[in-house]
């Protein structure tokens, strides 16, 4: 029998039965859980829980299981958990979402924008409140960790002074005042979204922008908001997709359609600075 806990994610509570190690792992784990804070865990005095964590899971699998359960919790409140870096424009205070798979250059583009005064709201997964009525979606929080690869950051941003020694991936949120937060933010209107692709050719300085067709954009959003479910556990045969039944999947698809109608998606490629230039133009056009 594990311990009873509740965790807070952007002012919503998930209750669980979990091994006592969760409390020890939580301060570091919380940076990779959308809407969570290092202080957002406490003993739970109830008798029923939303989630029972199997015994024997390590911290990584426990985090994946918690995130999948939070996906469903937020979905029940019309909130999508989207694989995206979310940033706040320094003047308009609206949010822009950077979409793309691992290695596409979302974080490099975000670094370029923070050097221009933008602030990172979510480093990897953003929580988006969606109104089916069609009003503008809002970022309500996200993951506070902002993980980057050492070599590309050193290559494109030597002014940051990142050393050559250390792990390949590291959290930049502790190295820049404009990066990171506590996982929860005051709701920010979403002004624009872009699928980014950073070209590794240093000769490609300019950014190129193209509007994504509506149906393709909806598919991009659909895949991005399945991110927390499309994970394989290393120490369990649990299938995370099973937290979302048919009714929940249909509800998520409906929210995606509403999101696609209100926030058009553009595709941008080029160097980090060139992509950042185009993102700023998108944000200016919306303001």
TrEMBL record:
Q: What is this protein called?
A: Hpr(Ser) kinase/phosphatase
Q: Which domain of life is it from?
A: Bacteria
Species annotation: Lipingzhangella rawalii
**SUPFAM superfamilies according to UniProt:** PEP carboxykinase-like
